[in-house]
Specification:
Elements: H1 2-15, E1 25-30, E2 33-38, E3 56-57, E4 76-78, E5 81-83, H2 87-98, H3 108-121, H4 124-129, E6 136-137, H5 139-154, H6 157-174, E7 176-179, E8 182-185, E9 195-196, E10 209-210, E11 219-221, E12 239-241, E13 250-253, E14 260-263, H7 270-300, H8 306-321, E15 348-354, E16 357-366, E17 372-378, H9 381-391, H10 406-416, H11 422-441, H12 448-465, H13 476-511, H14 514-546, H15 553-558, H16 562-572, H17 582-587, H18 589-594
Parallel strand pairs: 11-12
Antiparallel strand pairs: 1-2, 3-7, 4-5, 4-6, 7-8, 9-10, 11-13, 13-14, 15-16, 16-17
The structure holds a DNA duplex.
Amino acid sequence: EHDKKAKKRKHEYEEDEEDELLGSVFFFSVMGCVLLFVVFRWEEERYTDGSKWRFLEHKGPVFAPPYEPLPDKVKFYYDGKPMKLSAPAEEVTTFFSKMLDHEYTTKDIFRKNFFKDWRKEMTSEEKSKITDLNKCNFSEMSEYFKTQSEARKQMSKEEKQKIKEENERLLQEYGFCIMDNHKERIGNFRIEPPGLFRGRGDHPKMGMLKRRIRPEDIIINCSKDSKQPKPPPGTKWKEVRHDNKVTWLASWTENIQGSIKYIMLNPSSRIKGEKDWQKYETARRLKKCVDRIRTQYRDDWKSKEMRIRQRAVALYFIDKLALRAGNEKEEGETADTVGCCSLRVEHIKLYPKMDDQEYVVEFDFLGKDSIRYYNKIPVEKRVFKNLQLFLENKQPEDDLFDRLNTSILNKHLQELMDGLTAKVFRTYNASITLQQQLKELTCPDDSVPAKILSYNRANRAVAILCNHQRAPPKTFEKSMQNLQTKIDEKQNQLSAARKQLKAAKADRKASRDEKSKKTVEVKRKAVQRIEEQLMKLQVQATDREENKQIALGTSKLNYLDPRISVAWCKKFGIPIEKIYNKTQREKFAWAIDMAEKDYEF
DNA sequence: CTGCCGACTTGTCGATAGGGAG
DNA sequence: CTCCCTATCGACAAGTCGGCAG
């Protein structure tokens, strides 16, 4: 009954945006029996007026511990002479000295930004004395921190246990909130401590001081009828508001980019889970009309209007290559990275012929997080001709799509399908690829580890599509070697076990007694077990090798409809724990509950 | 239309907990 | 039980996208 109910509700969710309201527990009386229905959270009411909750209560954020001045024996030297710094100036030097081992502290921009911000924290006296970063010697401080972290590692079990308990206490007190009728885990209830901003890639602001956040910087969001969080003694919140049109519990403005940071709920929460579900439903709606959209953009390649041609070619890239939309960015504020709409002439090369292929486009640019996207793909002639046209009379630093931006593109997409935006294509193509690859790669007769290898390969296909690369782990070669050693050992074990089996068989032939018969059985089992272990190790080695430069996590967490994986597990009898770890199972609880083995994305 | 803001998702990476081998 | 190693998790950065004012 419950399944039926769940399916019905699923149906309603997918087909009908106007949903009736339900409570969390139902009582039905059938033939004198009282039946109780527990309704899962993701099947509960959703608000239709844009509000996200009715009741919200929490304890506010946890602040970074205050600065502890260095012991007097640890000295900072300027121009070879020891110098005692004021606490604010000293704190900033500790950030720098902790980073001394990193290459980026040698970079000009980093040093320049750091020095500029450091000087702002100095007293006027310090300011007039300290004028050259190169004359600063932080090595004693650096040594001190290294010793400290060594000491932390050497702490006794009891001390470590104490710290753990304290963390647990903090988690219990501040890590949860009540939203509507549920206790929910908060994602990041700790305020980021001050430090030096690093940024990714070639960031113009690297080295700047990320300042300490105080209660006076924090806006609290909770419901009027809740017990409001108390600021630390002697302080005040910047503001307490009661805005139930948003999901965050607290926010503050960060000083590097001037952007707002939020405290929000954990992915396991109702509010995040529902949104996630919705995202995949939008992608599934795209599945239904993607053919039509593809026909249309191919048609648009022939348009009389330049802007339409550009739009159509960009959309083709977004669809075929799973590129990101590519918003414009303020120059000099962030690293120079691009997405589809912000591609520049210098980022592509056209080859009318390359090897045995025609109309090849070579992409080479830095995308999100300054991860390089490099790809050579043959495109259709019409796309190629259009690209040549777009490139005419342009400089390398000019925009490839000068008549297009993400806002124009998304407005167009919105007209093609309700809720359609550029990023939906990434979700759609990722999920459909997983489903199709799983179909292709899974052999029903394979062992469980072999099936999991197939799953990872399907996952890998998606990660490659989305360009989720990673730097090979520093210990990669070594751990590969270790694994190989293990495999070799297993192989030796196996041949030894086989020899023993053979001997046992011979013995049985000779003596024909019960005992020798038993020995044969035991030895046979041993061989079998070792064979299995060997196979497992070999599969593991293959998997790891293929995964060297590819990160599976991001696509698994953000792009793959979890119901595909759940259905696959059910279909092939794979325990879900083999695919999703604990955190992931919590995040995807909605999918685990609702997907059957015949689920189709 | 443009720039900016606000909210929310997506992304990488390093620290570390805890599981398994010896 | 200890040590080693890796999977996991949190930190925090960097995207997307919609809305609004001028």
